[in-house]
Amino acid sequence: MRELLDRQRAAFMAELPVPLAARKDRLARAIALVADNADRFCDALSEDFGHRSREQSMIADIAASVAPLRHALKHVARWSKSTRKPVMFPLGLLGGRAWVEYQPKGVVGIIAPWNFPVNLVMSPLAGVLAAGNRAMVKTSEFTPVVALLFEELAPRYFAAEEVAFVSGGPEIGKAFAGLPFDHLLFTGATGIARHILHAAADNLVPVTLELGGKSPVVIGRSADIAQATERVVMGKMLNAGQICLAPDYLLVPAEKEAEAVAGLTRAASAMYPNLLANPDYTAVINDRHHARLNDWIEDARVKGAEVIAVNPANEDFAASNSRKMPLHILRGATDEMTVMQEEIFGPILPVRSYQHIDDAIAEVNRRDRPLALYHFGSDREERRRVLDRTISGGVTLDDVIFHVSQEELPFGGIGPSGTGAYHGEAGFRTFSHARSIYRQPRLDVAKFAGMKPPYGKATRATIRRQMK
């Protein structure tokens, strides 16, 4: 891997300055890599998951990869333009000029997760390639079929000195994180992110972390409960809840809790009238995660939660060798339960009630800052209070997850849910170096401003002007 990094960096330095035409060509080839092989990627995704909805893979991995790449291709010329900046008085009047140019950083490392193993490679590549960088990608060991497909296909579209893929387990991941990249992007769990930061710190590599956390849904008293619960179910059961942005717990007014639980149950039953043979519903990624989710449900049951498994066809999941799980709604979830302590990453939804909106806000604020926050309701004053009194990576109002698909919005977390942002122009900026340039006029400014010894009247005048 170090040899590959050295080759990429040498090729990058030889190419400087990276032409706009070369950036566009690489973005076009990245689009072709995904679009030309969409069927094979969908097959690989389903094989890795044990079953994954083909339509879901097309929407969330294939189309969601092509869209940001096309967006970058369309806008990279504008993003790449230098930005004129004002010059402090009186230097501007004397002919001084200042501007910022956006340079590529060099070689960017991408450590991709398993839950969207195509999209969370190609979407970051949009910003990486638009900025003029080279890229090395570490794929997840939990999706080995997708990883092998990337390694097979990438050389048909890119030279190894442009974009290259490596695969392997934790030891390979650890070594990859320790390489002296010019920037490193990690998408994954908060616990692993701590190790990534330690590994990158030895080489002072700048790091962008896209993590997760317990993203809350706040349903206001003015919300349309039927609409809100349907939209929450759509987001929660997409990819079987294995999404960093999935609604992690629901906060609902106490008098509307029963109505909300009924709405969740009704919506899940309508979207997925059966599960085991349903091609639209995705399985849990592996046996370990399946066992973890079942253990957490049992932990909640033992500690007093009411567990509602939404199983409209009364299917026998215990007798099946499938890793599909129905939506489990947990009423009365308490802080002692694991589901209220850890990011769930599966089809389990704790429901908690509140009396006043400030109670819901306090519930959000006493936990780590989440990657996303969702609010439903038509009360503008309440919405403004929720937005003003909470901090999260991003927000979707009157729905869930959708802010991630807006390429002009920066996507990222804050604190334990992430550091830095990408998508669209924000991604271009993240993977670029904003280089400040100042051009001095021909006039001897230092002498004019009294900055050359011996100091005197002009010096004191400059100090007075600056102190104002």
TrEMBL record:
One of its GO terms (cellular component) is cytoplasm. The keyword NAD applies. Belongs to the aldehyde dehydrogenase family. The active site is at residues 210, 244. Residues 11-436 form the Aldehyde dehydrogenase domain. This is Aldehyde dehydrogenase. GO terms for molecular function: aldehyde dehydrogenase (NAD+) activity. The lineage of its organism: Bacteria, Pseudomonadati, Pseudomonadota, Alphaproteobacteria, Sphingomonadales. InterPro entries: Ald_DH/histidinol_DH (IPR016161), Ald_DH_C (IPR016163), Ald_DH_CS_GLU (IPR029510), Ald_DH_N (IPR016162), Aldehyde_DH_dom (IPR015590), Aldehyde_DH_NAD(P) (IPR012394). It comes from Sphingomonas gei. Keywords: NAD, Oxidoreductase. GO terms for biological process: aldehyde metabolic process.
